[in-house]
């Protein structure tokens, strides 16, 4: 026992935690997302430690119907429930790993009947006997090399990664709900405009048919009017399919079957674009996006895994002790003369394993390099996504302005055509054609406005939503 104690003391004095210590990667050296200037955008930058968006980022669009739909989705979405349950699993596994750092105490009790052969006692033959035993045992592994410490660190990092995965699932869910709400509003607005176009087409056909029957226009004019009606009728089916798909997708997002739940009838007028677009600094993006934070935690876990593999190269020490009462009759089980105890130390050290442990350590180091590359790639993708959405918003602003100008011109043309008709200089067909141009311009404005709303939401999601810094 003195030898074991001396060995343990020496190892503890010289022991250390194996493997590298994790260090948070430096923020990317960038002060802007795009090289081109974005003059059409009004941006508001959040300073370090400040919130770039409200706590519920979707409230930027000032829609009570949207707020309620997001609330229902957060309560019922199945993917979010999967992420939350997986986080609970990771947390419980972390608790189980932490328990390995403490001594393990077990209670033991046994009862049996035994017959020992003569050879066991050197020629003496004992009759069969019954034995009883009650006691406890304690086992403790000395973590002088830090293997248990690094394992706890690894599992804690994995639990943290899963927590960020829950945040990512929540952000993805709320983003998809907002996008589907915008898709519904856009489809409804375009359907209304398309129905207006078709109504004008039908009026046009009736007028031309009447003129043809009166002999004032050739049959070619009637065919042209009917052809235009047939062509414009192709506008509605894809728009109605777009509306149905968005409604079905939103039902699934809130955790309901499409046949059991109907989303609100969102309209573009239900939403208001924020006056300024929230924008966090590039140096803060890695601290906001949950997918980047998850990869950082995975990198931490991979670093700890190197320490676990390194600790396996060192000797392992375990102490065990037991205290029990042993007797051959139940009545004398707790007599002091039946006390029994044991104390033992066990040291195992690798000598020759054909390079298995060192290969495992090299494999963990390669996994660490792969994890670092994944982290860096995730950061680059995040920067690209923000840059893409910023450029899209710049073009959305230009497109919205152009579509609005086209609508203004179409409405002015319609007003002049009506004045000309009142003066007897143009016919009713010119008025109907001008009305059709106005309806088509309204469809363009609706598409452009909806696209700008979608890209605004995607910008907030790309920046990490309302994730805390």
Write structural notes for this entry.
With 469 residues, the protein is an alpha+beta fold. It is 59% helix and 12% strand. It is built from ten helices and six strands. The strands form two sheets. A four-stranded antiparallel sheet has the order 2-3-5-6, covered by helices on one side. Helix 3 runs antiparallel to helix 4, helix 4 packs antiparallel against helix 8 (290-311) and helix 9 packs antiparallel against helix 10 (428-462). The longest helix has 67 residues, at 147-213. The protein is elongated, with a radius of gyration of 37 Å. 32% of the residues are buried. Mean pLDDT is 85; it is low at 10-15.
Summary of the model, kept short:
The protein is α+β, with helices and mostly antiparallel strands and 469 residues long. It has helices at 2-14, 64-76, 78-99, 147-213, 219-232, 236-253, 282-288, 290-311, 356-422, 428-462, and strands at 43-46, 104-114, 129-142, 277-280, 316-327, 339-348.
């Amino acid at each position: 026992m003195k030898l074991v104690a001396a060995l343990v003391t020496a190892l503890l004095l010289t022991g250390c935690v194996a493997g590298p210590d994790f260090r948070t990667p430096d923020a990317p050296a960038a002060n802007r997302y795009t090289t081109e200037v974005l003059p059409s955008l009004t941006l508001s930058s959040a300073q370090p430690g400040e919130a770039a968006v409200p706590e519920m980022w979707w409230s930027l669009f000032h829609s009570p119907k949207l707020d309620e739909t997001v609330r229902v989705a957060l309560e019922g979405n199945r993917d979010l429930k999967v992420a939350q349950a997986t986080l609970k699993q990771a947390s419980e596994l972390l608790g189980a790993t932490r328990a390995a750092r403490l001594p393990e105490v077990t209670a033991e009790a046994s009862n049996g009947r035994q017959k020992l052969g003569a050879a066991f006692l050197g020629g003496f033959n004992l009759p069969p006997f019954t034995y009883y035993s009650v006691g406890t045992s304690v086992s403790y592994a000395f973590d002088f090399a830090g293997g248990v410490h690094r394992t706890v660190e690894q599992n804690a990092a994995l639990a943290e990664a899963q927590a960020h995965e829950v945040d990512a699932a929540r952000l993805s869910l709320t983003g998809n709900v907002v996008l589907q709400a915008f898709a519904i509003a856009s489809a409804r607005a375009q359907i209304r405009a398309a129905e207006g176009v078709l109504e004008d087409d039908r009026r046009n056909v009736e007028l031309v048919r009447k003129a043809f029957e009166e002999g004032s226009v050739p049959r070619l004019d009637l065919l042209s009017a009917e052809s235009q009606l047939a062509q414009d009728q192709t506008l509605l089916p894809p728009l109605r399919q777009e509306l149905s798909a968005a409604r079905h997708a939103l039902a699934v997002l809130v955790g309901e079957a499409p046949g059991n739940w109907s989303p609100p009838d969102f309209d573009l007028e239900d939403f208001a674009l924020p006056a300024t677009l929230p924008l966090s600094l590039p140096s803060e993006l890695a601290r906001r996006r949950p997918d980047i934070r998850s990869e950082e935690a995975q990198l931490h876990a991979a670093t700890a895994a190197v320490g676990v593999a390194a600790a396996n190269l060192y000797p392992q020490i375990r102490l065990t002790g037991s205290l029990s009462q042993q007797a051959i009759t139940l009545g004398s089980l707790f007599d002091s003369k039946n006390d029994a105890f044991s104390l033992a130390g066990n040291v195992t050290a690798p000598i020759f394993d054909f390079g298995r442990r060192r290969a495992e350590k090299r494999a963990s180091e390669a996994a660490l390099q792969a994890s670092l590359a994944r982290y860096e790639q995730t950061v680059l993708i995040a920067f690209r996504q923000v840059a893409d959405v910023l450029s899209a918003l710049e073009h959305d602003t230009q497109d919205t302005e152009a579509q609005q100008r086209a609508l203004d011109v179409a409405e002015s043309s319609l007003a002049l055509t009506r004045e000309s008709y009142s003066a007897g200089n143009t016919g009713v067909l010119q008025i109907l054609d001008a009305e059709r141009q106005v309806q088509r311009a309204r469809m363009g404005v609706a598409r452009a406005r909806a696209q700008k709303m979608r890209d605004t939401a995607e910008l907030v999601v790309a920046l990490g939503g309302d994730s805390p810094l």
